[in-house]
Design brief:
This protein is an alpha/beta fold. It has two domains: about 5-75, Corynebacterium glutamicum thioredoxin-dependent arsenate reductase, N-terminal domain (Helicase, Ruva Protein, domain 3), CATH 1.10.8; about 85-210, Response regulator (Rossmann fold). It has seven helices and four strands. It has helices at about 10-30, 35-50, 60-75, 100-110, 130-135, 150-155, 190-210, and strands spanning about 85-90, 115-120, 160-165, 175-180. A four-stranded parallel beta sheet has the order 2-1-3-4. Strand 1 (about 85-90), helix 4 (about 100-110) and strand 2 (about 115-120) form a beta-alpha-beta unit. Helix 1 (about 10-30) packs across helix 2 and helix 4 crosses helix 7. The longest helix is centred in the last third of the chain and has 22 residues, at about 190-210.
Length: about 220
């Protein structure tokens, strides 16, 4: 967690938004998890963003989205949410460039046939604008994504864990398929320099999709 926070420090609007988020998650997961677990995941997810958020009004929404992903991952780990679709997790240092572009390609290519997640060992404040622009050039919108950390349940729920530059910080759990992609970091680069990185990621992702979702014979 980035830093301590307390519900009393939130504005009335933020408190109401967080309460609404808890209600939304409880409605979605009430057959799987108790309210205490749901709120714990929501509040810890909020804490992950509280110390580095650029726009505070978006915090409850980000927390809800991240808590939903974590709860879905935990359900898979516990055998309650595995629908047979493969899960790919893309990890890099800041979850702002490489892993976000890889997730964008993976989601675009697989649709609802697979599940894609991403994370970073030291998440940035925002997604790299050059990465957003490079992906927009190929018709994929990643502008609504946000840098986030990985958590144990997310890694344990993944079938394939793809790492890109996070080194020793990348998590290792037995039984997962791991690949390390040697791809340059687009941080600080302009759009012209990011394009070949984007294209290299696309090539790798297409190969991964072919392996996870082989064409029927």
């Amino acid at each position: 967690m980035t830093g301590p926070w307390h519900r009393d420090t939130l504005s009335i609007d933020q408190q109401l938004a967080l309460t609404t988020a808890a209600t939304n998650l409880a409605r979605e997961f009430d057959d799987t998890f108790g309210r205490e677990t749901i709120e714990r995941f929501l509040h810890s997810s909020y804490g992950e963003f509280a110390g580095r958020a650029v726009v505070l009004n978006f915090l409850p929404l980000l927390a809800e989205r991240f808590a939903r992903q974590r709860l879905r991952a935990l359900a898979r780990v516990e055998g309650d949410g595995d629908d047979g679709r493969p899960v790919a997790l893309f990890l890099c240092t800041h979850n702002a460039g490489r892993s976000q572009m890889a997730l964008g390609f993976f989601t675009h290519l697989t649709g609802d046939r697979a599940i894609g997640w991403s994370g970073g060992s030291s998440p940035a404040h925002t997604v790299n604008p050059a990465a957003v622009a490079a992906m927009a050039e190929v018709g994929i919108d990643i502008s609504s994504e946000f840098p986030k950390p990985w958590t144990d349940e997310i890694v344990r729920a993944a079938d394939a864990v793809i790492t890109m530059g996070c080194g020793d910080a990348c998590p290792i759990f037995p039984g997962r398929r791991y690949e390390d992609w040697d791809i340059a970091d687009p941080d600080g680069l302009d759009l012209d320099a990011v394009r070949p990185i984007r294209d290299a990621i696309e090539q790798r992702v297409r190969q991964l999709v072919d392996e996870l979702l082989p064409a029927p014979v």
